[in-house]
Amino acid sequence: MREETRATRYALVTGGSSGIGLETARGLSSRFEVVGIVGRNAGRLEDAAKELRSGSIGRIETFQADFSALAQVQRLAWDIRNRFGRLDVLVNNAGVWHRERTVSKDGFEDTFAVNHLAHFLLTNELQDTLRASGSARVVNVSSSMHARPKSLNWDDLNFEKHWRGFWVYGHSKLANILFSNELARRWKDLGITSNALNPGNVRSNITRNNVFLNALHRSPFARMIVMSEAEGAKTSIYVATAPELEGVTGRYFDKVREAKPSRASTDEEAARRLWERSQEMIDAAIR
Ligand SMILES: NC(=O)c1ccc[n+]([C@@H]2O[C@H](COP(=O)([O-])OP(=O)(O)OC[C@H]3O[C@@H](n4cnc5c(N)ncnc54)[C@H](OP(=O)(O)O)[C@@H]3O)[C@@H](O)[C@H]2O)c1
Q1: Residues with CB under 6 A from ligand 1
Q2: Which of 39, 95, 28 is nearest to 62 (CA)?
Q3: Are 147 and 169 in contact (CB under 8 A)?
Q4: Residue 131's pLDDT band (boundaries 50, 70, 90)?
Q5: How many whole angstroms separate alpha carbon 144 and alpha carbon 232?
Q6: Could you tell which of 37, 40, 239 is best to mutate to test the pocket of ligand 1, judged by most ligand atoms within 8 Å of the CB?
Q7: Are 262 and 196 in contact (CB under 8 A)?
Q8: Mean pLDDT of 257-280
């Protein structure tokens, strides 16, 4: 296993080049010997790594991949498997919120593709690397917006007929929790836990595509009610590392404590169906 000893522990954060992900990586870098950050832009990724390296004890590694292209996610998983002998924590954090309907490289609605499908694929591709840890945690970053849709848009997961940014984003965040719960059920005997969370309302780059929301998020008024990125990372770091959560799986956390997600997000039949549909979509795109 590379030059590290067998006790070396590895964590990986998707969307680690900015916002909550960058702060999550910073928090994990004092607890794990090696922390990988994934980002789509080489410059932003290197800037983030440089910043982290200046203050971290552990080693920081970078991985470049655009989650709008599932083939890149597959290559990313291959790269991680080769560079990390095991993975103790995977934080599925990367996320996007579009201003207008955007289509991924594989022809899927991009919010669903990046926020859900890419993480579905990445996590499944890393199963053996997570199992090698002996007790790994998958942490899925959702949002309170998951509670807006009362079910998934089964007839039109690509939102070709009716697209609204808020709605589509909430739909992808509902998919995050359904996926997290189904993963917890399917992998419960593998020594891998899976939990979902809402980081809270955080000042970050997620609203950068929306001029109105971006201005609102950064206004003096919003600064009183919107958390810093470091505050926003606390729930991810807690779920990834808290000793009392060892073996805890299939739960939802909000602002550093367990919480009740929407009824739609705990629908087991919907979670099983989403798993199957996601697999079919991925198979059609890249296999
Ligand atoms: N901010 C909030 O109030 C809030 C509330 C609830 C939930 N969340 C969730 O928290 C997570 C982190 O968001 P944030 O607020 O920290 O936003 P952010 O600052 O915009 O960070 C998002 C991260 O995802 C990456 N990303 C976006 N599209 C990607 C793609 N196609 N391929 C690869 N990486 C991509 C970004 O990379 P680039 O640097 O290249 O853009 C960035 O590193 C998201 O899942 C979001 O839904 C945020």
Answers
A1: 15, 17-21, 39-41, 44, 66-68, 93-96, 114, 141, 143, 198-199, 201-202, 204-206
A2: 39
A3: no
A4: very high
A5: 13
A6: 40
A7: no
A8: 98
Judge whether 169 and 97 are in contact, CB under 8 Å.
Answer: yes
- Strand 34-39 versus strand 89-92 pairing type: unpaired
The yes or no reply on domain 10-286 and CATH 3.40.50.720 is yes
Residue 230, CB-side half-sphere exposure with 13 Å CA sphere? 2
| Confidence band of 233 (pLDDT split at 50, 70, 90) | very high
pLDDT digits (tens, 9 = 90+) for 248-268: 999 999 989 999 999 999 999
Q: With contact defined as beta carbons under 8 Å apart, do 255 and 233 qualify?
A: no
Residue 36, both tokens: 């990988």
